[in-house]
Specification:
Number of domains of chain A: 1
Distance between the termini of chain A: 49 Å
Number of helices of chain A: 4
Shape of chain B: globular
Oligomer: heterodimer
CATH superfamily of chain A: NADH:ubiquinone oxidoreductase Nqo5 subunit
Number of strands of chain A: 7
CATH class of chain B: Alpha Beta
CATH topology of chain B: Rossmann fold
CATH topology of chain A: Beta Polymerase, domain 2
Order of helices and strands of chain A: HEEHEEEEHEH
Number of domains of chain B: 1
Order of helices and strands of chain B: EEHEHEHEHEH
Strand content of chain A: 15-25%
Strand order of the largest sheet of chain B: 3-4-5-6
Radius of gyration of chain B: 18 Å
């Protein structure tokens, strides 16, 4: 689908929550209200003419050191691709520093579980109704969010005990019927 | 060392000399490989470089069965308690070789998640430089360690003094 048609179709379906669009190096960026991201993404996935069946990536951005930036401090970029129709889309969400909370997509795309956990771990953006929102890369005793621009990059934190990951294992065992 | 008696097939020596002779020529390494240095270690074990010429070819993947911990690769803070636990599971006497710049000093990972040298977690006997080290460097580290086992009373020069780990689990 053409980029302009795609934007018009989305705007028609969600006139209140699609805030605008921009051309980013030839790719279409659609700005969405953060509280409505799950509804818009449901349209992207389920509409037969859009059929975005892959969530390629979820990128969290800290704009605090961005030259000339006046918007909210954090941003999220969702990258989608349709394997059947071959087109792509990028949704952009502004996230305020005081309340970095965004609805989860984990009911729509299975891989958003880990992508959102990474955004939470490294940037401190929380996702409401996420089934298992905990750190994925850093250890559980880590304090702070290292990819934020105000985290000192060489500030190191010791882990005092082994991280056994048995809590993850027990869920898998229960799923497979070994208790 | 000397012969005793007329034609009697025996030699005399000190007991600790025999023990250290046995220890240094039958090191059983346990590779703690976390990065590309571990790939280089495979090259040292296999036939071209052949670490078995120095008696250290019997690679065990259990700390209970080995006496040489060979830390090859980057150690993160998430890995550090695991490394410490593996070191404590090894039986005495035991030695540690820190292979490559990441294990020795953190390498170019000067960031929030990498341990800046495993000597903050376990005591290290021999450090190897390089990224990754040449196989010859690993062989030389084994020879250096054999020297150290042979002469435990020898005091290393001040710049080679082994640091005590400062983080206590």
């Amino acid at each position: 689908m053409e980029k302009e048609k795609l934007f018009e179709k989305l705007k028609e379906k969600h006139p209140q929550t699609i805030l605008g669009s921009a051309d980013r190096f030839g790719a279409l960026e659609i700005q969405v209200d953060r509280n409505a991201i799950a509804d818009v993404v449901r349209t992207l996935r389920d509409d037969a003419e859009l059929a975005f069946n892959v969530l390629v990536d979820l990128v969290s951005i800290d704009y605090s050191a961005y030259p000339g930036w006046t918007g909210e401090r954090f941003g999220l970029a969702y990258l989608f691709k349709s394997l059947t129709l071959g087109h792509r889309a990028q949704l952009k969400v502004a996230v305020p520093e005081g309340e970095p909370v965004v609805p989860t997509l984990s009911g729509l795309y299975a891989n958003s579980d880990w992508l959102e956990r990474e955004a939470y771990d490294q940037m401190g953006i929380r996702f409401t109704r996420h089934p298992n929102l905990k750190r994925i890369l850093n250890h559980h005793e880590f304090v702070g969010h290292p990819l934020r621009k105000d985290y000192p990059i060489t500030k190191r934190q010791w882990l005092s005990a082994n991280e056994s990951l048995m809590d993850e294992m027990e869920v898998r065992l229960k799923e497979k019927g070994y208790e | 060392m000397g012969m005793t008696g007329e034609g009697f097939p025996a030699v005399t020596t000190r007991r600790d000399a025999v023990v250290s002779w046995g220890q240094k020529n039958s090191l059983w390494p346990m590779p703690f490989g976390t990065a590309c240095c571990a790939i280089e270690f495979m090259g040292v074990v296999s036939s071209v470089f052949d670490i078995s010429r120095f008696g250290a070819e019997l690679v065990r993947f259990s700390p209970r069965q080995s006496d040489l911990l060979l830390v090859a690769g980057t150690v993160t803070f998430k890995q550090a308690p695991i490394l410490r636990q593996i070191y404590e599971q090894m039986c005495e006497p035991k030695w540690v070789i820190s292979m490559g710049v990441c294990a020795s000093a953190g390498g170019f990972y000067n960031n929030y998640c990498t341990v800046q040298g495993i000597d903050q977690v376990v005591p290290v006997d021999v450090y190897i430089s390089g990224c990754p080290p040449r196989p010859e460097a690993i062989l030389e580290a084994v020879l250096k360690l054999q020297d150290k086992i042979d002469r435990p009373q020898a005091v290393p020069p001040a710049q080679f003094k082994v640091k005590e780990p400062h983080f206590d689990y």
